């Protein structure tokens, strides 16, 4: 009995959707090309790697705070900072955690480097990215992110529509 009711509801939904489409109350959904979907995927993966690296760096900072470890180094995750971190005298379990975390950070740094190189290749070929790079405060990664999320600015009927797409909840005054 449930499957008969389910089929009936699906038929009603189909009829409602058809009516909405016919009357213009439902807009066509934009689907970017495969090339742009792949670039989006790569950029979003890089973002997730950066977030994971930040989480791991915060773990290292919490271990340093736990044992009141201080240094004059400006970048504890640079070359000399990593050497300093690896030679810290902390209890065995925390040393294992620290070394594992540092190894993970180094691995993620390598992955971010590889992906950034790939994105830079795409950026060199994109006229939109070149235009975005001419703006103050926009770096290569930000320009690529903006370009692949918007894809084609001409698909927006007005600047207001572009702003509402790129920043939900914000409006132009």
Please describe what this structure looks like.
- With 173 residues, this protein is mainly alpha-helical.
- The chain folds into two domains: 1-30; 31-166, no CATH class.
- It has seven helices and no strands.
- It has helices at 2-22, 34-66, 79-86, 92-125, 127-133, 140-150, 159-166.
- α2 (34-66) packs across α6 (140-150), α4 (92-125) crosses α6 (140-150) and α5 packs across α6.
- The radius of gyration is 25 Å and the shape is elongated.
- The chain starts with a helix and ends in a 7-residue tail after the last helix.
- The mean pLDDT is 87.
Helicity, in percent? Answer: over 70%
Structural class: mainly alpha
Q: Any low-confidence stretches, pLDDT <50, length ≥5?
A: none
Rg for CA atoms: 25 Å
Number of helices: 7
Count of distinct strands: 0
Distance between the termini: 55 Å
Mean pLDDT: 87
How many structural domains are formed by the residues? 2
Specify the biggest β-sheet.
none
In N-to-C order, the SSE pattern is HHHHHHH
Overall morphology = elongated
What percentage of the residues does DSSP assign to strands (E)?
A: under 5%
